[in-house]
Amino acid sequence: MNRLDKLRAAKATALKAIEKARDALVDEEGQFKALSDEDQANLDELEQRVKSLTEQIEKEEEFQKELASSTVLASADKGKKGDEDVKSNPEARKSSFAKARGGEATDGVLKVGLVMIGIAAKERGLVADPLKAIRDAGHATLADELAYEMRSMNASIFSEGGAVVPSFMSQEIIDFLWPKTAFLRLNPTRVPMPNGSYEQPGGASKPVAGYGQELADAAATEATLRAISMVAKELSALIPMSNQWLDFSIQGAQAFVERALRRVMSTTMDQKFMRGDGQGGNPTGLFNIPGVGTGGVGGTYADATAPTQAEVDTVARAMINDLATRNINLDSAAWVMTERTRGFLEDMKDGNGNYVYSGLQSDSNPVFKRRPVIDTTNLPENLGGSGDAAPLALIAGEHILMGEAGDMELSVSRDAAYKDANGQMQSSFQRKETLLLGVMRHDVTVEHVEAITVTEDIRWGAA
């Protein structure tokens, strides 16, 4: 399979991936689900890849046409008498090539062009020797001239010939490594906040009832209410980019920066929605909402980094019971754990070599204690006095509220002023920069604090 076929195959694969991703966003009634930031970022990345591959295919097709047409250039000179004189006489070499191409003025331009074609043919695996491609194109004289002048030039060493060998530059930029997030996978209830705030009444204390004697006074009781509220917290990021860099760099440069901006904001949102402290404009994350359960805290171990099955079961059952005794519907509950914690549980075996928690062996739908598992690399594993503890939570996602004051906004400006990383005011116009600003406004809360139980002292699997 040549390079053109590989590019076409890669494009077909990317198109199938887009189709598959879009199919996953259609519910049972054929309606499109709301796109999460992570879903949108994945679709943007796939669509950018298709665009990049399309451009590379077009360039490769142009190159193949150019290579094919070059085989007819100056074919009349191929094999003519005088090649031996050309090898020994530089002036003869020069004049011979000039005659073949119609004059002295075009010598240098055509020579460079044919050399580039030869090198590109080797890069694409069409020939082993670029000089052979030049000979096959009808330029044996030029090939001999180059062989004589280059001698043993080494393409891998700049000073010995590498200076004339071009580097292939892909139109795609390798992405950063991003953590695996958890919050949106809990399927929270997403509510609009068009005015930046959200209010909803909720029950605080329930009425009570009791039995009594006939004609006895019924005991007075009442139900009290509480306010469930959210106020939009603003998440933003600003990236200055040199105009020259944008103008001169590959076509995927700005898309790469935009994709990175979306990802870093989504990752930060995930971190703060789980563990935000509510200070400095941060939201109060699920783990820090006052009143959430701590039913799993206090596990005792012979070795906290390598607990036995019985020790693990004790902690897990305490967390399940913590939700159950609060009357939370456990059907929507899911575990949130770090990859290290899941890995330890996944590898546990009994005395017969059987996996203790076989439900964790599934890649697509892992379960632990009959509840789904959401594993993440976006939670810390350096907590506690030992510095190696991680969180473990059991959360009923149907009770989580995510307020959104609009979608993520991306703004671009070449005129605005901004503060740099050192707090100094800069002019993007004067510095010839383009500013990319991303803004999200949102908040998080729960309908019932009873829907969450969490412990942050899990050392299972720590080295």
Give a short overview.
The protein contains 12 helices and 14 strands.
Mean pLDDT: 80
Radius of gyration: 33 Å
Strand content: 15-25%
| Elements, N to C (H/E) | HHHHHHHEEEEHHHEHEEEEEEEHEE
Biggest sheet record? 5 strands, mixed
Show unreliable segments. Answer: 71-88, 90-106
Helicity level: 25-40%
Form type: elongated
Give the N-to-C terminal Cα separation.
46 Å
**Strand count:** 14
SS element count, helices:
12
Helix/sheet category: alpha+beta
List the helices and strands and how they pair.
Layout: H1 3-24, H2 37-70, H3 83-88, H4 90-101, H5 107-123, H6 130-136, H7 140-150, E1 189-192, E2 197-205, E3 224-231, E4 233-242, H8 243-248, H9 253-275, H10 309-324, E5 333-338, H11 339-347, E6 367-368, E7 371-376, E8 390-396, E9 400-404, E10 409-413, E11 417-419, E12 425-427, H12 428-431, E13 433-446, E14 452-458
Parallel strand pairs: 1-9, 5-7
Antiparallel strand pairs: 2-3, 4-13, 5-8, 6-7, 8-14, 9-13, 10-13, 11-12
Helix pairs in contact: 1-2, 2-9, 5-6, 6-7
Q: Main traits of this protein?
A:
463 residues; alpha+beta; 5-stranded mixed beta sheet; 12 helices; elongated
